[in-house]
Amino acid sequence: MENGYRKSLNIRFHLDPRTKLLLLILFSVVVMIDVTDGPAYIVRAIMTYIPVVLVCLEGKPHVGARFTVLFILATWLMEITQENIGGIAGMLILFLCYMITQFAPTMIMVWYCISTTKISEFMAAMNRMRLPQGLAISIAVMMRFFPTLSEEYRSIRDAMRMRGITFGGGKVTKMIEYRLVPLLFSCISIGDELSAAAVTRGLGAPVKRTNVCEIGFHSKDYVVIAVTLVLSILYIYLSV
């Protein structure tokens, strides 16, 4: 069983959870600096595709392809809108495209961290960093909350389709009753279930926890950290 787990880590470009956390912090800092042209924009464009490459190396190239198409389309639409479309419609399109190009890299990095990190790996990394258990448990519950909420929404959507209810039977206002209200009640139960699961696993016990999974920095972690750190420093230097 342990050999199989190690083999799966070797097949995928699996990074240490602490590496992913550092990349997320760096990307969060970078997106706060707005640059539209010049050498800094080229560095930013290169950094934008770092999470795309990581997602593809994790065995999910379809997600990377969707992000690439979305980013290129938003960039192209922004240029077209600035030249040909004005008024309120142009402002709305520009705002939407700006949000995509500005925050999409961080959003896909968040998705990458959540979807490729097991809770056991995350807790082991937090123990290595000696973070307070309250903070580590809160982040772990949050990491499981959003994927579970997404699955719950898909289940509600499928149930509504089976009953012939699509967008409230033709009335958009019925969406609140048919989709959002069940989802809100599901949020309450999901939070309670995740909290109970955390207590059942002994996450809040005042003892040192053990972990079956193995974590640690490897050569690929150092390479990714070095590349991202150099690009981040270069981007900040060129944009100031």
* Oligomer state of the chains in this structure: single chain
Cα distance spanning the termini = 51 Å
Order of SSEs: HHHHHHHHHH
Main pleated sheet: none
* Uncertain segments: 1-11
How much strand? Answer: under 5%
Overall pLDDT: 77
SSE class: mainly alpha
- How many individual helices? 10
The counted number of beta strands is 0
Helix content: over 70%
- Report the principal-axis shape: flat
CA radius of gyration is 21 Å
Folded structure, characterized:
The chain is an all-alpha fold and 240 residues long. 77% of the residues lie in helices and 0% in strands. It has 10 helices and no strands. It has helices spanning 2-11, 17-30, 39-48, 50-57, 61-84, 87-116, 119-129, 133-162, 175-200, 219-239. Residues 1-11 have low confidence and may be disordered.
Features of the shown structure:
240 residues, mainly alpha, 10 helices, disordered N terminus
Summary?
It contains ten helices and no strands. By secondary structure, the protein is an all-alpha fold. Helix 3 (39-48) runs antiparallel to helix 10.
